[in-house]
Fold this protein.
Amino acid sequence: MSTTYEGFTAEEKAAMKEHAQDMKKSARRASAADKAAEAEQDVVAKIAEMPDEDRVLAERVHAIVKANAPALAPKLWYGQPAYALDGKIVCFFQAKAKFKTRYATLGFNEAAQLDDGEMWATAFALTKMTAAVEKRIAASVKQAVG
């Protein structure tokens, strides 16, 4: 078993560059309202660029988050749709095409109020959007913001 550091993959490097660009773009915006509106436009544009399978999932996640946790502000995070509360990322969508994985991911960061005993899930594989999946996402994002 090799323990040598192989470095970041090309996909990871690209994600870090996108994150830096997102941060620079955000810093250049004028008012808070302008920043929020432009950040949401960036998220919608990024979703529109996704391959069909990822785009369909991301569009539904975006709509579900906006409807069930309106306090969360859409923004790009490492080039992917994310939703923040008071500047802290609460949840995010990661397209499967982004890192060439077999499924998209809906993830939650530590700002999410998902605590359930000593262990709880913070990421979910998303392969298909069904009524049951939509209901679970809605419940999770509601819980995440308390």
